[in-house]
Amino acid sequence: MVACLADLAHSNGWCRPRVTGDRRIRLVGARHPIVEAHLPPGTFVPNDWEMDGVTATLDVITGPNMAGKSTVMRQVAISVLLAQTGSFVPAAEAEVGVADAIWTRVGAMDDLAAGRSTFMVEMSEAAEMLSRATDRSLVVLDEIGRGTSTFDGVAIAWSVAEYIQSRVGCRTLFATHYHELTELTRTVPRVRNRSIAVKEWGGEVLFLRKLVDGPASKSYGIQVARLAGLPAEVIARAREVLANLEAGELDAVGQPVLARGRRGGVRSAASPQLDLFGAAAAAPARPDPVVEKLAALDPDRLAPIEALRILAELVSDAKKRKG
Q1: For strand 47-51 and strand 58-62, is the pairing parallel, antiparallel, or unpaired?
Q2: Which of 176, 239, 292, 310 has a C-alpha 20 to 30 A away from that of 97?
Q3: Sequential DSSP letters for 284-297
């Protein structure tokens, strides 16, 4: 085994990693050795990735299908695993903080003979991960929540991400097509948005295979569906439906709807203590909350169901103030 690893390292230009006791993982020019082996020489696009495990512990990675999200995440996990076995790693430079385990939720698999659907297997694996991972673990999540309805899937994915950050605190790569999850940075600490760069040129989507800071501007799923040959009428209607859905992503005061707690407020990892005297002194100068919500609305972008929901909230607020 040692001879095989040495031969691979020599033949493919792998580097000697620096293995440390802290939580930082730093990879420069990292590559996926299996994907690279199946491509023409020199065509694989390497990527840099760094996470200190202190100021940043979770990366939400967005981007279209076929862009390379899964490849980037897996090459990070492979490099960490190889480094801890004593091997060189497929990168130009590597610094790896020791992980006590690498937990992954990748791909789709069922166990129908045991009565477990694809989604049940996914949830079982996620449950084991959340119960056993520690703050020294490395977690790789690829499209969690996709085996059920869209609303259920987004809700589960959002809640899992919050739990990992608040209860586990481990280094996590979280790839998703649920673009709503990019709003986690508004309410959850130590979360970063990363994406796989693409360019639109002449109506086509060009995959650049590079990991960059910030969320993808959109998921490009409709563009990929068009490339696959769906009828133009289907594509046009999908764009209309998408616009309606995107109009309801934030609430009336600009916070992500998914982050609300039971009482309507946005959940956060740390709620500051209220300054009772300061609040009392400032209260008379505040505008009416109902007026604030109305002023923040854009009727032209509201879907009918979202408009009804907001109307119900405003009526409820008005009744509380009156009573």
Answers
A1: unpaired
A2: 176
A3: GGSPPHHHHHHHH-
Element (H, E) at 76: helix 69-84
Which runs of E-coded beta strand occur in 107-201?
138-142, 171-175, 191-201
3-state secondary structure of 225: helix
Q: Look at residue 261 in the predicted model and tell me its pLDDT.
A: 67
**Contacting residues for 297 by C-beta, under 8 A, at least 6 apart:** 252, 310
Closest CA to 80 of 51, 43, 54: 51
Domains of the chain: 2-229 (3.40.50.300), 231-323 (no CATH)
Distance CA 167, CA 133 (A): 10
Say if residues 172 and 141 touch (Cβ distance below 8 Å): yes
Burial, 131: exposed, middle or buried (Cβ in 10 Å; 0-12, 13-18, 19+)? exposed
Model pTM score: 0.73
Q: Tell me the two tokens of residue 207.
A: 């995959």
> Which of 160, 171, 158, 198 minimizes the C-alpha distance to 62?
198
d(CA 315, CA 288): 14
How far CA 157 is from CA of 147, 154, 164, 244, 261, in Å, comes to 11, 5, 11, 22, 16
Within 8 A by CB and 6+ apart from 298, the residues are none
Q: Are 36 and 11 in contact (CB under 8 A)?
A: no
| Residue 102 burial (CB count, 10 A) | 17
Model confidence pLDDT, tens digit, residues 104-162? 988 766 666 677 778 888 899 999 999 999 999 999 999 888 878 888 889 999 999 99
